Amino acid sequence: MKEPSFSISDVSSTMLITLYARARESTSRNPIISDPKTVEMIEIIKKEIAGSDNPIHKKILKNRYNPKLAVTMALRSRRFDRYVSDFLSKYPKGTVINLGCGLDTRFYRIDNGTVIWYDIDFSEVIELRKRFMEENSRHFFIGISVLNPDWIAGIKTGGPYLIIAEGVLMYLTETDVRELFNTIHKELESAEIVFEVTNRYWVDKMNTSWMRWKFKRQLGMTGGALFTFGVPDGRYFETWSQNYMFLDEWTYFDDHERKLGWFNLFSSIDVLRKVQWTLHYRIGN
Prior knowledge:
The protein is α/β, with parallel strands linked by helices. It has a domain at 90-283: Vaccinia Virus protein VP39 (Rossmann fold, 3-Layer(aba) Sandwich). 39% of the residues lie in helices and 15% in strands. Strands 3-2-1-4-5-7-6 form a 7-stranded mixed beta sheet. Helix 7 (174-188) links the parallel strand 4 and strand 5. Helix 1 packs across helix 4.
């Protein structure tokens, strides 16, 4: 067995699925998202993971992920891009904080020349990130767990703030998420936050042996990469505090994307339409 030259956890390994999906969609006909930097990165990483026994690595190398995965991941990336672009249209010199950034390339896609941007993830992820991307006077990398409140001291620019968490919160516990939101409110006072959530119904299902087997077979996800936090509905966070205000939400089916094909049939069934979806909140005034 050949081990790659980098070492990351089960949870962090899922960032390679997202990277692979963006690259695959970028090279498809009429791509939902164009991300040439991601295409360049995945080709380099493929050479390093060749021969690895990691289930995610093997599926990437053999191109065994369902093509619809690339479509949904690209739709999510495009929607997060739009949330950030909308924020920057209002606050061109605002601050964007990308929690659990992985190998995300959003800064390079939508940099307006004035935004202050922080990418935050585990130190081993940031080290891998530095092999492909460089910091500059407005773009910074912070190698720390998003659950360690120390990260917030280094990003206090005065705002306005937009926090994004794409594919992050479902790997935390509810206690973790409550503490994270509380820290944001306490330290920043006011911020917009865009984050993906998973339906609690499906998180509970993941505790069954059948669902664990299914996730391993379809996605290569094992161990700590399984989801642990879910919500019953989009307004759930408003029940935590009067300081949390629901603004809007988005599902994969809201764009009526033809590339989803028969998946669009799920749009009429709420428990399937909202297996995973994106919420937009304001924390504080």
